[in-house]
Amino acid sequence: MLNIALFGPPGAGKGTQSEFLIKEYNLFYISTGDILRNELANETKLGLEAKNIIASGGLVSDEIIVQIIEKTIINNPFSNGFLFDGFPRTYIQAYILEGLMIKLNTSLNCLISLEVEEEESVTRLLNRGKTSGRMDDNETVIRNRLKEYYDKTLPVLQFYKDKGVLREVNGNQIIEKVTVDIKDVIREELKNSLFNVVLFGYPGSGRGTQGKALAEKFGLEYVATGNMLDEEIKKGSEIGEKIQEIYDNGLLVSDEIVVQLIEKKLEESKDVKGFIFKGFPRTLVQSYILDGLLKKHGSFISQVIEIEVPTLDLISRLDARRKTDDKRPYDSETSKIVQRLADHQDKTVPVIEKYNEQHGVKKIDGRGTFEDVFDLISNEIKSGMQNMR
Ligand code: AMP
After folding, report:
1. 258 and 227, same domain (yes or no)
2. Are 45 and 63 found together in one domain?
3. Is residue 120 domain-shared with residue 170, that is, in the same domain?
4. Residue numbers of the chain with a pLDDT score lower than 50
5. CA-nearest residue, atom 12 of ligand 1
6. Which pLDDT does position 388 carry in this prediction?
7. Which residues approach ligand 1 with their CB closer than 6 A?
8. 152 and 227 belong to one structural domain
9. CATH code of the domain in which 364 resides
């Protein structure tokens, strides 16, 4: 996961920069100010409690903040990461954030502090006040919000400085320049994280051949559950015998078996730049498992790619393959091929749809030659990596 907190006085540009960051890095945005304003608009108990404090420019109690933050985080546990805006604002909230991150088995990558001079903040907020409709964008309240910031919020910086995750950015510059500087900070941050690709496609779409070659080209570890299962069969292990039986019936191997193999692979793969997953996740349950496994390694899915090939082409490719030495144990009969295509349709397509909502799936036309398709996917991965680094 990539978890970032944007820090700075009111008017520093946290909201403006957040718009770019959530899109670019696919983060879940948590602005305590926005949540409170929403509670207020809906006249909830929480909103009404906070109303007068917000109107005067004071800080809402840590008790209220912990409730709204916890609720939001727990409702969105599978995002790529969180972007916090306006939180933590007190020393206590810094500890609250630590606790929440631990609960999610992750940590805050960095706190980016947008440094802006006090008078610049006032000018910006007064300007915003002309159109924002916010009750706290008037000079008296603005001065009070800034006083609260300098008294109670600024000391929080020391907490993150001590932890070594404070990153300072000059927020007095034009918006675009601030964005560039923030991106540089995050690029540094991501240098140490893994780049993980999930490669989808119907059986016969070429995902195996492509996956292997792509892994080699980009220095990623290729994780193909099918191959891992075949190896177990070849080894004649106990698990292998079970797998052979499942294949003979044209069924999917149980999640327990697959998870064990993947977990072992992730544990064993030290010093890698990332992974290409092929043939996993195949079901919604497995997609949750992958999220969990990656999270355990402090990581997340960076890119999802689907190779698209028309059904008739798939059938003729698979039928041709079963007559060659390259045939797989599950290619042996037409009925099994059909079963596998149907399984993909029923069980894996919903996973792709889910990922499409979460990450945006890149669709690749898989009808061309190996090289054509390889180039198309390579370009996607290259740009994915560039965006990340
Ligand atoms: P913002 O939109 O971040 O400027 O927040 C607007 C107002 O909401 C602040 O002036 C506070 O009254 C309240 N607020 C927002 N976030 C917090 C927080 N983390 N702790 C305390 N009060 C907050």
Report:
1. yes
2. yes
3. yes
4. none
5. 54
6. 65
7. 10, 32-33, 36, 53-54, 57-60, 65, 86-87, 89, 93, 136, 145
8. no
9. 3.40.50.300
Instruction: For a ligand 1 pocket test, name from 39, 60, 114 the mutation site with the most ligand atoms within 8 angstroms of its C-beta.
Output: 60
Environment class of 271 (CB within 10 Å of its CB; exposed 0-12, middle 13-18, buried 19+): exposed
Q: What's the domain range around 366?
A: 195-388
Please indicate, yes or no, whether residues 119 and 12 belong to a single structural domain of this protein.
yes
| Among protein residues, the one whose CA lies closest to atom 5 of ligand 1 | 33
Q: Is the pTM of this model over 0.70?
A: no
Q: What is the pLDDT of residue 316?
A: 87
Cα of 242 vs its chain's centroid, Å: 35
Last residue of a domain, one of 166, 190, 214: 190
- Position 126, amino acid: L
**pLDDT given at position 53:** 95
> pLDDT value at position 387?
67
